[in-house]
Amino acid sequence: MSGCEPGVHGPRKAGVVIASTRAAAGIYRDETGPVIEDWLAEHGFETFPAMVVPDGEPVGAAIRALLSQEPAVIITSGGTGLSPDDRTPEVTLPLLDREIPGIMEGMRRAGAAKTPLALLSRGHAGTAGRTFIVNLPGSPKGVMDGLAVLDPVLSHLCEQLEGSHGH
Question: Mean pLDDT over residues 5-32, rounded?
Fold first, then answer.
């Protein structure tokens, strides 16, 4: 079983990567991982424990480690801004086989309706094999806005990655 394939092997699997140098160092508690994990559980996903890692290359290493487990979905949070250590987009893009720009366009549009700062998010969305990967912002509100955009499309996206051609 790989990617989005559900069925006899159980629920779809999902991974969560939190890009936060301060949370990884224990300076403060990550608030976005639990939001993402709860949302995934509500959508029937079995989630691997969230990985809280420092910004930069550790994010890419965490995504690669999750990809080896062939989850249906990997959601990252954090590291999508313009600070010098915000490198999540740079470490995600080389892992993608195909980008899905409409998802990020939708997220930026939805976020910008609430704050113009959403336009500064540089995240990517796409596929690596049969796994969907998306970069969400690091704030709980930004995460919730991003998940709201994913809500009506994630099931269909997974079905397409499984090989279903229904529209």
Answer: 86
